[in-house]
Design goal:
By secondary structure, the chain is mainly α. The chain contains 3 helices and 4 strands; from the N terminus they run ββββααα. 52% of the residues lie in helices and 7% in strands. The chain starts with a strand and ends with a helix. It binds zinc ion (ZN) (2 copies).
Length: 145
C-alpha cells in the first residue's frame, strides 16, 4: 500500500503514480518510464527533461502515522491471537490482558493524534473503527466480569 504525500490518499499495491492527483510517489519518472531520484532535473537514462512531479517528501508526522498504523494492526492481531489462545486454554483473567489493553489505549491515543492531521474520510474511518473497537472491548470486559 502506498499513500500519496500530496493528496494523502491510500493506494493498494505499489502504483507508479497517484491516481487522484497524478503525481509520482518518491521518484521523478520520465515520459519513457525511467525512474529518477526526486532531485533529478533530467532523466539519467535518456536525458529527457520531461519528468513527472513527485509528491512532497513525507513529513515526520506522515511517516509516524504510517508506522503507528502498521504497529496498530500488528498489535491488534497479536492481542486477538493472545486472547484466542487464552480462551482456548479456558483460563481468561483480567490481569493477563490489562497490560496489552493499556498499551492498546495508549496506541489509540497516538493514532488519534496523528490522524487528526489526515483528511476527513480517513479520520472518520479511524474514529469509526476506534469506537467499534472500544465498544466491543467494553462488551467483552462486561461479559467476563
Ligand atoms: Zn495524490
Ligand atoms: Zn528517461
Amino acid at each position: 500500500m502506498r499513500r500519496c504525500t500530496a493528496c494523502f490518499r491510500f493506494h493498494p499495491g505499489r502504483p507508479t503514480f497517484c491516481s487522484y492527483c497524478g503525481r509520482s510517489f518518491d521518484l521523478r519518472i520520465c515520459n519513457r518510464g525511467h525512474e529518477n531520484p526526486r532531485a533529478a532535473q533530467f532523466c539519467a537514462a535518456c536525458g529527457s527533461a520531461d519528468l513527472s512531479t513527485p509528491g512532497p517528501p513525507a513529513s515526520l508526522l506522515h511517516r509516524l502515522s504510517g508506522a503507528v498504523l502498521y504497529l496498530f494492526v500488528v498489535f491488534i492481531l497479536s492481542v486477538v491471537a493472545l486472547s484466542m489462545t487464552l480462551s482456548a486454554l479456558h483460563s481468561i483473567d483480567g490481569e493477563a490482558l490489562s497490560g496489552p489493553l493499556v498499551a492498546l489505549v495508549l496506541m489509540l491515543g497516538v493514532l488519534y493524534w496523528t490522524t487528526t492531521l489526515l483528511p476527513g474520510p480517513i479520520k472518520r474511518l479511524g474514529a469509526k473503527a476506534g469506537r467499534a473497537l472500544w465498544g466491543s472491548m467494553r462488551k467483552k470486559k462486561g461479559r467476563h466480569d
